[in-house]
Known about the structure:
It is a single chain. The protein is mostly helical. Helices cover about 70% and strands about 0% of the residues. The protein is built from eleven helices and no strands. Helix 1 packs parallel to helix 3 and helix 5 packs antiparallel against helix 6 (about 85-95). It is globular, with a radius of gyration of 20 Å. The N and C termini lie far apart (about 50 Å). Mean pLDDT is about 90; it is low at about 205-209.
Amino acid sequence: xxxxxxxxxxxxxxxxxxxxxxxxxxxxxxxxxxxxxxxxxxxxxxxxxxxxxxxxxxxxxxxxxxxxxxxxxxxxxxxxxxxxxxxxxxxxxxxxxxxxxxxxxxxxxxxxxxxxxxxxxxxxxxxxxxxxxxxxxxxxxxxxxxxxxxxxxxxxxxxxxxxxxxxxxxxxxxxxxxxxxxxxxxxxxxxxxxxxxxxxxxxxxxxxx
Length: 209
């Protein structure tokens, strides 16, 4: 029955029917399962109850220790409320408790160096990014996140071949890795701009051209 309610709530959320989703999840209000909590928090946030969503996740984290998904979700809610320092602090605290958690590294990297079109709300984010990268590469350098960062650093140093090789390796492991693919395309584009001979750039086999 719980599984059916979760699936129903997911379907209702896709339809933007958050009131009905909240009603479907109401009988599961005593559950501390991460998936249920994330759904309930999502519904609360989408219905203008972001503070209540923060409180819900915080209660579960205090009771269970909480996994990384709860920490990251709460951090995103804190960001939405304009509390960037609180978001940063809680992810850093979680990383200190789990220093090899790749998803926590990825969340912090996104805080300090968000995707194009977004602005970091963290003060002195560049120096913090450098410190975090050094820590990441000293702890889990061969992780997917570690290799993405290494490719980013190689591209920044105009070592495009090395950057491309790392990203191609990631795509050989998972052809559906959208972030690696986008980063590889950026690397090819940078290489084309940097060199006068476009033949130096490898054809993108993942696009079939």
